[in-house]
Design a protein that fits this description.
single chain, alpha/beta, 10 strands
Length: 236
């Protein structure tokens, strides 16, 4: 048993980092001065785990998530994904990274209201340039999130929890390396929030994807393999 624990520890210690955040600062200009949103953030997110980015509203969680997802750039510092500093990529390369390597799940699910669940997920594959076996992958992802019998329902016909699950299926459909989820459970009740967290845990195992989820829900802390906590833009 002791030997097994040692081996498990070695495997964990040598797990490749999917995201390396080094001395990230983000300053925004405001009337009469500057606002320091992030201060010297350093963290390594191992590949294939669910990481919780914890903090109160205004702590800098979304700002950091946007930088990791190449939606924003830091004032200083670096973010390495696959050994490449995404902060130094051209805008075109950053867009390609977002379309092919990263999946996003937002608090507002932003499903296209004129498309059913199947079409919403398939649309993400079209954007990523996936041409082969699209229909099969869409069905696989919707069944994975428990919506195999709801895939041809319109968003208006689905509950908030079901819509969020469609958004998760959409995010994983193109097999991204990383999924960034910004407060995906904020509008859900505690039971459905726990179900979404369980789905994310399952995704790390089945899809071998790295997931970073922001939340201020203390009830979800145990769902993560690791927790990064921010307070007033600083890492605790």
């Amino acid at each position: 048993m002791e030997t097994d624990n040692l081996e498990a520890g070695k495997k964990e210690a040598t797990r490749e980092a999917a995201i390396v955040i080094s001395h990230v600062n983000r300053v925004f200009p405001v009337a009469g001065g500057e606002f320091q949103a992030l201060t010297d953030i350093c963290a390594e997110v191992p590949a294939g785990v669910l990481t919780i980015l914890k903090g109160r509203s205004g702590s800098g969680k979304t700002t950091l998530l946007n930088i990791v997802g190449a939606l924003d750039v830091p004032t200083s510092g670096s973010v390495l994904i696959g050994g490449r500093d995404v902060c130094k990529l051209s805008e075109r390369a950053r867009e390609n990274l977002r379309r092919t390597k990263v999946g996003f799940v937002f608090q507002s699910v932003s499903l296209i209201p004129t498309m059913d669940a199947f079409q919403n997920v398939e649309f993400s594959l079209r954007l990523a340039g996936v041409k082969k076996d699209r229909g099969q992958r869409v069905e696989e992802c919707l069944k994975m999130v428990g919506l195999g019998n709801r895939m041809h329902h319109m968003p208006v016909e689905m509950s908030g929890g079901e819509q969020q699950r469609v958004a998760i299926a959409r995010a994983i459909a193109h097999r991204p390396q990383i999924i960034l989820a910004d407060e995906p459970t904020a509008e859900l009740d505690s039971a459905m929030a726990a179900e979404v967290a369980r789905l994310f845990q399952e995704m790390t195992r089945r899809e071998h994807v790295t997931i970073v989820m922001t939340t201020h829900d203390t009830g979800l802390m145990d769902a993560g393999d690791m927790v990064i906590e921010l307070e007033n833009g600083r890492q605790i």
